[in-house]
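Hello forum,

I keep getting stuck at the same step: I have a sequence, I want structure tokens, and every attempt I make locally crashes halfway through. Rather than fight my setup again tonight, could one of you with a working pipeline run this one for me? It's a single chain of 314 residues.
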Amino acid sequence: MNKNYFEIIRAGINTTFQDLGRKNLYHIGIPFSGAMDNRNYLLANKLTGNDDNHPVIEFAYQGPHLKYHGDKINIAITGDVSFKIKKRDNLVDGECYRSFILENNDELDILSTNKSVYGYLAISGTFDLKFQWSSCSTNTKANIGSNNGEKLSANQKINISEVNQNFMNKKLNYINTKIENIRVIKGTNFNFFSEKAKKIFFENEFQVSKLSDRMGMRLEGKKLENIVDTNIRSEGLIKGVIQVPADGNPIIMLSDHGTIGGYPKIGVVISADYDKLVQLTPGSVIKFQEVDLNSAETLFKLYDLETQNLISRI
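Reply #2:
Ran it on my machine without issues. Output:
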């Protein structure tokens, strides 16, 4: 038996293994998947001394309660998360964006995310995982990836094949900020919608519904009128594209989205806003703002530069 492992006391909600995802498989119906919030994923790995594409544990709303067995190991949690570490009879309040050492029989209880959805747990070691198409990312809708394509469950063991001797105390002063507007470029079927619908799309607020997960985010608000056809011949989709079915309520495609779809596309969320988009909880309000392609590219470069600057400070 592997001497270094986590015992899962409580699995939490939608707890999976994720990395940067799998590329160039859209032609066989396989999306990228990967960590929903790319910035927080990268920061978690940097805090534990890992490379950029190292597998981590992603959780939503409530994280897992884990008991550690083995040699001491460094861990870090990113996002807006409340957690505690139990060391013998002492209970330590956790702090995001800071590394902590776990020793044999220590417990890590990830209680909840705070007004956000996703958090990340990285370790100074390597989870013993099976890779599929060069990625460990779990897509539970398609049963693809590590853990047989399933969420983690109570009483399961998470084996660690290697523990790195990286015990430097690392910390980053960083606060997750909310975003006022979600910026989009026009979709390929933008002109399927009435002038009134276009005005509603850019001037009215939409609410994130409870029907949201890693595959897509359903919105509620004033209906968007389609004046051409509520269905089109199925064609390729990308992460962030906004489809509008016949009921007039937009659906934003997220990391585990289907690779083709037959609903008209009114817009696409720009890559610079995606990390903050996925952290919006049900009931949150979204307002869309139009930008052109050149602006979207510039905004992504700036967001990526900001992410790299944060990484360099660790």
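The chain has a mean pLDDT of 96. If your local run keeps crashing, start a new thread with the error log.
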